[in-house]
Request: fold
Amino acid sequence: MAKIFVDACLGKETPYTPVWMMRQAGRYLPEYKAVRAQAGNFLNLCHDPAKACEVTLQPVDILGVDAAILFSDILVVPNEMGMKLDFVAGEGPVFEKPVRTQEEVDALMGGEAAADKLTYVYETIRLIKEQLADDKALIGFTGAPWTLATYMIEGQGTKTYNICKKMMYSAPELLHEILQKVTEVVKYYLEKQILSGVDVVQIFDSWAAAIEPSKYDEFSWKYMVEIADYIKGKYPHIPIIMFPKGIAAFIERGWVYGNFDVFGVDWGTPMALAKEKLSDRYVLQGNMEPCRLYSKEQTTICVEALQDIMGGKRHIFNLGHGILPDVPVENAKHFIDECHRVSKQK
Ligand code: CP3
Reply:
C-alpha cells in the first residue's frame, strides 16, 4: 500500500500533506511515562525492543500522525563505540569519560563492528514493522557526526561548546578523526536500520548553529553529505531528511548542496525564505515553533499560514524542533488534526 509520507518525501503529489512531530514519542504522553516507569530508566527503555516498539506506536494511535519515528536516542551510537552513557535526572545525558586525546579516539570502536552492537535497535525496527499499519511510514534516524561529537567531547550538553571549539581551532585534525570515525559507524548504522525495515531516515544536526558559518561545511555538512552519498548509492528509493537546526544564514545564500530529499526547516527560519531558496531542490519539512502548541488558537494560525505559503506542494508538516514535555496531549492532537484539515481543503 502506498505510504503518503514516503510519497511526500519523494516530492510526489499526495491527497493531503502528511504530518509528524519531532520527539513525538515522549514525556508529554502519560502512556509513555507509564512504559518508561516500567522500564526503570530511559536507557533500559531504549534497550528493550518490545517496550521501545510500544512507545514508538503510541503517537500513531493517539494522535494519528502519518509516520512513526523509531524510539531510541542519538547517543546510543557513541555508547556502543565504547563510551559509558548515563541519563541523569534533571541534567540530561552524561558520558563517564569524554574523548579528548588521540589515545582516547584510538580506543573508540569504529566501523561496522560498532554498528553491529546496536542489535536492540534493529530488533525494535522489526517489531514495529510487524505492527505498524501499511499506510504509515517508519522513520529511522541518527545524530549528525558533529552533533554526536559535541556530546562525546564535552561529556554532556553544553551552552558554550568551548572544549569542542578549542579542539576545532587548536587541534582540527583530531576533531576530524573523531568526525570521520563517527561518520563510518553512522553509515553502517543507517544501512542496518534500512535493512531492518525503516522507510525513511532523518539526520539530526541539532547543534549546527554552534559552528561559525565559514567552518560549518568543513566540520559538519560535508560529513552528512558523505553519509547521504553512501546511503543513496545503495538505497536510492529510501528518502533522506536532513535537519540542521539554526542555519538560516546558509539558506539565505542558497548554499546547501547534497544528496538529500527533504530539508527540515527549523522554527527560526521563515518558511517563505526556505521555499524561495530550497524548494526546487528539496521537499520542505516543518516548521511550527513548538511552543505554539501551548495555544490551540496560535497553532491553527500557524498551520494555516504554512499551508498558504506551501500550497500543499512539496511539503511535510512538522514542528521546527522537538515537542516539549509539558504540552497538553489534546493540543498536540489539535495540531495534527489541523494539518490534515487545511491540507485536505486545498
Ligand atoms: O523523536 C522521537 O520521538 C524519537 C525518539 C528520540 C529521542 N531522542 C528520545 C528521547 C529522538 C529522535 C531523539 C533525538 C535526540 N536525542 C536529539 C536530536 C533531536 C533534538 O531534539 O534536537 C538529541 C540532541 C538527543 C540527546 C538527548 N536525549 C538529550 C539532550 C536528552 C535529554 C533532554 C530531554 O529531552 O530530556 C535526551 C533524552 C531523551 N531522548 C528523552 C526522550 C524521550 C527523554 C528521556 C526521558 O524519558 O526522561
Notes: The CA atoms of residues 240 and 260 lie 5 Å apart. The mean pLDDT is 97. DSSP finds 16 helices and nine strands in the chain.
